Predict the structure.
Amino acid sequence: MRVVIVGGGPAGLYLALLLKKATPHHEITVLERNPPDATYGWGVVFSDRTLAEFREADEPTYREITERFVLWDAIDVYVHGERVRCGGHVFAGIARTALLQILQRRCAELGVVLRFRTEVRQPEDLPPYDLLVGADGVGSVVRSWYAEVFRPRITSGRTRYIWLGTPRPFGAFTFVFQQTEWGLFQAHAYPYEGCMSTFIVECGEDTWKRAGLEGANEVQTLRRCAEVFEEVLRGAPLLSNNSRWIRFPTLRTATWHHGRVVLLGDAAHTAHFSIGSGTKLAMEDAIALARALLDHEDVEMALAAYELERRPVVEAFQRAAAQSQRTFETTPRALRLDPYRLTLYLLTRSGRVSYDDLRVRDARFVQRVEARLASEWDDVRLARPPIHLPFVLRGLRLENRIVLRPAGACGALEGLPDEAQHRILGGFAARGAGLVLTEILAVSPEGRITPEDAGLYRGEHAEAWRRVVATVHAEGSRIGAVLGHAGRRGATRPRRFGLDLPLAEPWELLAPSAIPYHPDGPVPRAMDPSDMERVRDAFVRAARLAAQAGFDLLHLHFASGYLLASFLSPLTNRREDAYGGSFENRLRFPLEVFRAVREAWAGPLGVALPITDRARGGITEEEGLAIARAFREAGCDLVEVTAGQTVPADNPVYGRGYLVPYAEVVRLEVEVPVLAGGGIALSEANALVGSGRVDLCVLDLDEGLVDKSPQPFVS
Amino acid sequence: MRIGIGLPSGVPGVRGGAVVRWAQRAEAAPFSSLAVIDRVAYDSYDPLLALTAAAAVTQRVKLVTAVLVSPLRNTVLLAKELASLDQLSGGRLVVGFAVGAREEDYLVAGIDHRGRGSRLTEQLRALRRIWEEGTVGPPPAQPGGPPFLVGGFADEAFARAARYAQGYFHGGGPPRAFARAAEVARMAWVEAGRPGRPELWGQGYFVLGEEARERGIRYMRDYYAFTGPMVERIVGQLLTTPQAVVQFVEGYAAAGCDELVLMPAVADLDQVDRLAEALACVW
C-alpha cells in the first residue's frame, strides 16, 4: 500500500513511523512544505506525564520524548498583586523542535520517505497513493479539496492571542491577569526546555486596539507585551517566531474521512489552547488510525473505525475546551472575584477537576480557599466547605447554600396544599437544606397549571401554609413561597400524566397574545388592560397572604413560558400596544407586577427568569442578561436562571449543571445573587459556590442529602 | 429490577408457531415482560401482530414494544391498534416509542424521514387525545391508555420522554452507558416538573450455549450491518455466557434500571430456559 501523508507535524510523522513499523513493505511518504529544522511555536504541553498509549505504540520515541520532558505540578495565578498557587497537578512540556526532531529521526530510521520543502497545492501535485492523509493542520489543503464532504465549520474566538517565548523559566503553569490603562491582558506561560518558557498573551479585541497592537510591527508588539508583563517577566525579554495575533479557530468537521482520504489532528478538529494538548490529541489520532489500518483489510472500513473510535473522545475534549475558552474570553467579569475564588474558578473551569479532586491534590490550597471564604463572614470562626457558608438576602440569613424544592405538583384541592406537601417540605428542612422552596403557587384559580396545584389566593391557603412554615422553621431552615400564573400553560392535566396535556374542559386562559401553547391546546385570550390589572393585584394579594403565612422569602416565577414569561419573549408576545414589540415594551408588564409586589412585600424577593428561550427568534442570552439587569434595578434580591420551555419545541441541552454557564454570567455581569438548578449534584456544589459561579444550588439530582453538622476544622 | 425477555420475532426465518410457543414458555418462567423490535425493510414480524399473538396465549406478562418506530405509522390507525391490543391482552401493553435509527425503513415505507422527531411528539400527544375523545374505539383497557416510554439518544428524545411519557427506554450498551443516560433522563424529568421519577428501562442481547453462539453473532452482524464499523462494538456486547448475563443484570440493577429486557439473538426455544437458568441466582 502507498500512503501519502501531507504535513510533517507531530501527527503526520507519528502516523508515518507507526505504519512503517507495523508494515515495513508499505510505501509511506510524508510531504512537508517547510525545511526540516523550521518550527513554529515554542513548547507543547502534555497535561499528563504517563503517555501510556505512546509507550505502547512506540517505545523508542516514548523514551526519548519523556527524557526531554520538563515536569511541573503547580498552577500559579497572578492577580490583583497576589500569587495563588495550587499544586498536585501533572504537566509535562517539551520544545516543539525537539519533538519533531525525535519523530523525524525515527521516521528516517524506519525508512519513511520524508520530503521537505514540498508544497502541495492541488491533487495533481501528489505522488500516486492508495491512502491520502491530511495532517496539514487547521488550514488543511487536503481538506479544502473535498470541502463539500468534510464540511469544515470554523468558529473564531472572541479574543486576540499571540504565541511568544521567553528565556525565563517559570516553575509552574502560570496565569497572569494584568490590568492596564487599555484594559485587561492575560498571559498563559509554562516552561518547556532549559530556561525557556512559552508565553501566550491574550486580550480582548478592544484592549488590543486601544493598546495600539492592531497595526504594530513585531518589535512594537514585543515591546508592548514585555511592558505589560514586566513584573512577572522580571526583565526577561519576549521573543517572537513569526508570531501573529489571531483569534483562536475552533474547527469541527462533519466527517473525517472520504473514500481513501482521511484527516488527522488539527486538520479534522481543534480545541482551545488553554486546555492543554492539541498535540497529544493529534498523536492519539495517529495511534488510532494506525491501529484501525492494521485491524481492517478494507481501507474505507478502517477509516470509519478510526473516526468512530476517536470522534467521541475528541468531541468530549472540544466541549471541555469550549468551556475553558469561554472562561478565558470572559475573565474581565471574573476579576471581581477574590484571588482564591478566581483560582478555584479557573481550576474548575472545564468540569474535569472537582472540588474533591483538589482536596486530594492540594489539601492546603483548599484549606486556604475555605479560610479566605470564611473570613468574609464575621460570625464564621472556622473554615468550612463553601456550601456550608451562610448567606444573607435582604436581612434574611440562610444557614447554607443548599436549596431543595419538590418536583412536580402534588394533590392540592381548590388550591389547598395537602398533607403530603407538608411532609415533603418538612422533610427537606429536616435534611438540612438552608432554604426550602414551595412548588409554584398560583396567585388565582385560573393561574393554576393543573387542577391539583396549590395556590395562595384565599385566606385559608395562608392558614394552611402557616403550618408548613412552622414545621420548616422548627427544623432551622427557611422557606420561600414561589408565586406564579400559568398563563397559556394552564388548565392542563396533573403532570403525572405528562406535560401540557389539556383538560377536557379547560378554564379560560390568559396570555399576551391569543396563541395556544400547543397547536392542539386551548387558545388563550389576549389580555386587555383590566385583565392585566387583575393579574397584578392577584400577585400583590398573594404577597400579602405570604406575609400572613410567615414565609421568609418570596420568589416570582417569570420563566418557563408561564404568563409573565410569555410577555418577555417575542415568540409568544405579538402585542401591538405598549406591552409588546420592543424589548422595553415586552418587559413592561412583568416589571409592573414585580414593582407592585416589591411595594407590598418588605422581605427578600427573588425572581425566576428565562435567560434564553433556546429557540430561534426567541430571547437570546444577551436579552436574558438585560432582563436580569432590569429586575435587579427594580429591587430583585435573587435571580434564578432558567432556559427554555417558552415554546414546546425548544432545543433542550442536558448535562451535569447545564444551567451553570448562564448562572455564572448573570452572577458576574449583573452582579446579583444567583440560584441555579439543572442537574447539580451535591458533589459539584462546593466548586460552584466556592468559585463564585452560583450562590445557591438547587439539588435535583440526588435530592441533597445534606449533612447538617459539617466537620469544621481550624485552618 | 424486573427482567423481561424479547420475542424472537426479529430473527429472520423464524416460524410463527415458534414465536407463539416462545411466548408461552416465557409466561411460565418468571419473566415480567415480552418485548418486540420494529423494522420495516427486514425479515421480521410486525411488532403489534407478534404481541397480539403472544397476548392470546399468555395471561400475566406485560407486552412491550422495544421500540416502535411510530412516525412510520398513521396516528389514528395506531391509536386503534394499540387500544385493541391493550383490550385483547387485558391491559398488559407498554409502548416504547422512538424515531428509529434507519433511514431505509422510512424510504421503503414512503414516509418523509425529515421532521420525524416533531411527528413523534405530535403522536405522543395525539394518541392520548384520541383515546380521551373516544371518537375511535375501542378505548384502551388501561385507564388513560397504556404507559408510554421514549427511547433515543438526542437531548430532544430525553425531553420527549420527560414531557409526554412515563419514562425512558435506553437503546442498549454497558451498564455505565445506561447510568449516564438515566441521569439525563432524570434531569429532563425534573425540568419538566413531573412528580416522582421516570421509569427507566434498559435492554441487551443474549445468546446462550456453544452451538447457538455463532448463529447469534451472525444475526447481530446482519441486523446491525447498517451501523458500519459500529457493528463490531455491538456484537462485542452480546451476552454469550451465564456469567456475562448475571454481570450485566447486576450492573443494570445497580444503575437504577426498573426493567431490563433481554432480547434473543437466536430463535431456539431452549434459549428461554437457558436464560431463566442463568438468572436463577439473581431472582
